[in-house]
Amino acid sequence: MKLLFTHLVPKLAVKLLFYSLLVAFVFIAAGTNSYGQANEIVTNETVLKLQKAGLNKDIIKSKIESSQCNFNLSVDALLALKKAGVADDVVTAMLGKTKSAQQPADPVAVNNSNNSAELALESGIYYYNASTSEYVELDPAVLTNSKSGGMGEALKRSVSTLFNSKSKAALSGKEANLRIKDSNPLFVFVFDTDKKGLNDNNHTESNVESPNEFFLVRLQIGKNDREVVVGKSNSVSADFGIDEASKVLFKYKKIKRGIYEVSFSNGIPIGEYCFMYGASTASAQGITHKVFDFGIAAN
């Protein structure tokens, strides 16, 4: 009996060790597999493999919706998917997944919930680049009034008291330094809470508090500059101010005191523009205005 016990114990110990190692291996394998699934990224190649394997389009769509994805959705890539027979519903799901991943939430609201980037911005006007999540400051520029016409116009006016002369304000250069390849841009206005405003017309501090006190003006490209008509006059009357046809409508939303979003309902066309303090437009000839210029360029 003692001999039998002595003989069986080592075999039992070996079996227990074997089964313990087997159980441990199973748990490790399961954990590695679930980690791999959790970190799996679905790509165009993944979709093509599933398509080639004959999986139903609903299964492929469910895989896309439940996974992290990194799709190439260029024109060539979409044509390749179509050529491979990938269903339109699957391609739509790929587009929707990419859009939801790239679509920024309200940029100001997001930043406000994370110790807002706007709160660290100095007073100024910024273009929000959604593709890089960056705030690009619009540089101030000088718009100078100069009365159009000369001796020829003076002669015409002496003949007809109804002849109108135009006062124009011009920015040097045919285009702004800041080129925006976005037909529906988002701007952020940041005002100093101590009321040192954005316009600083003729070096005076202003009390500008909201974008409602600004015009967005579309500039006409001249020979060597960009210009806008700021006044009309004849021998009996004079009228100063930006022509309504040159103004571009925008909407704004107050985020918090001193911070506003400025956007457009239908976008704005390619061209040259500047934000201009409204009160400075009804001023005498020869005065300079501080403006913030930019250009909308083709993609």
Question: How many domains?
Answer: 2
Radius of gyration: 33 Å
Helix count from the secondary structure assignment: 7
- On the 0 to 100 scale, the average pLDDT is 75
Describe the 3D structure.
- By secondary structure, this protein is an alpha+beta fold.
- It folds into two domains: 12-102, no CATH class; 107-296, no CATH class.
- Helices cover 32% and strands 28% of the residues.
- The chain has helices at residues 2-38, 44-52, 57-65, 75-83, 88-102, 107-113, 151-159; strands at 41-42, 68-69, 124-129, 134-137, 140-147, 165-172, 179-180, 186-190, 214-221, 225-233, 238-240, 251-256, 259-263, 271-277, 288-296.
- The chain has a six-stranded antiparallel barrel.
- The protein is elongated.
- The relative contact order is 0.12.
- Mean pLDDT is 75; it is low at 1-5, 25-37, 108-115, 149-162 and 199-205.
Layout: helices, strands, pairs:
Layout: H1 2-38, E1 41-42, H2 44-52, H3 57-65, E2 68-69, H4 75-83, H5 88-102, H6 107-113, E3 124-129, E4 134-137, E5 140-147, H7 151-159, E6 165-172, E7 179-180, E8 186-190, E9 214-221, E10 225-233, E11 238-240, E12 251-256, E13 259-263, E14 271-277, E15 288-296
Short characterization:
The chain has 299 residues and is α+β, with helices and mostly antiparallel strands. Helix content is 32%, strand content 28%.
